[in-house]
What does this fold into?
Amino acid sequence: MKIATIVLLFSIFIFNSCNEKTQESSLVDSQSKDSLVVEEPKAIHFDPDKIEIEKALLYDEHTLEDTYPYKDTVRVFQWDKIRKRLALLDSIESVSASWAILQNYKNKNGEAPLVKVYKRDSYKRISDTLGVERYQSVPLFLPTDSAVAEIYGRDGSLVKLIKNDSSRLVKIATIDMEGEWLVPKKYIKQVNDTIVFRKAIFVDLTNQNIATMEKEGDKWLVRSMNPATTGLHKPPHMQETPQGIFVVQEKKSKMVYLVDGSQETGGFAPYASRFSNGGYIHGVPVNAPSTKLIEFSSSLGTTPRSHMCVRNATSHAKFIYDWAPTEQTIVFIFD
It folds into this structure.
């Protein structure tokens, strides 16, 4: 009897012990599964040398060759730099993402706060350590310090949305320079999730030319290759065209401009597509009181001479105006 009782008690102990171990094992497995982090898909790296470019012009007036004479030298379309930017565009488009535009044209969303380190530039305006002015710009805060902005982001810049919840600050990643930042939500314009960037405009500050390109399948098709004139650094009114990665934000069939330093109308620029601040891609300016369009200027493709804008032959500006949809066209500006 005693032996039978002992055997029974021992069996119950073994059963309970095994059952506890099974439960513990199940709990550990459950915790392990719950603690797994789902990694976001990584963007595909594209080799710039393998980016396929094909000429298929839609606009063929005032067209330049790949290499062309200028005074006692030659100028070129820098296809190596264009390929690098196309590879970047293909890379960021290779994974699903939410995109946005930094916006503060004429400080419409509020003057940006002062950054940690600032200075007065040659225009006597406040700018950050990178030379980006406070006026019309967006404050970028470090994720570790949301009290004081670190630098300014240019109006019209393309950014990737990382975290956009109910909080006042939105987490973004800049495209033209690596980095993650916090930005007040009022400066962010989210792009429709269905948009795919298939059209791009390339403005070369060094060679004073412009190319438009469109992706079809795996190829990038060249739609136009033309002379252009960019902004001149000449305080207090003329300003160089900023480098960066921008989005076409709005269009005006006539962009009215003022006489420098006054409120008097100076004339208009036809077929204007705005990309950053008061910078437009437009046709040959028409000075008041004339209203007749001017097709071409001998100064196109020579030296910088505009007020930040990218000046084109008027028919080419119209081509871009009709061809490039707002919030869907990227503008690369480089030297």
Remarks:
- The longest strand covers residues 265-276.
- Residues 1-38 have pLDDT under 50 and may be disordered.
- The radius of gyration is 28 Å.
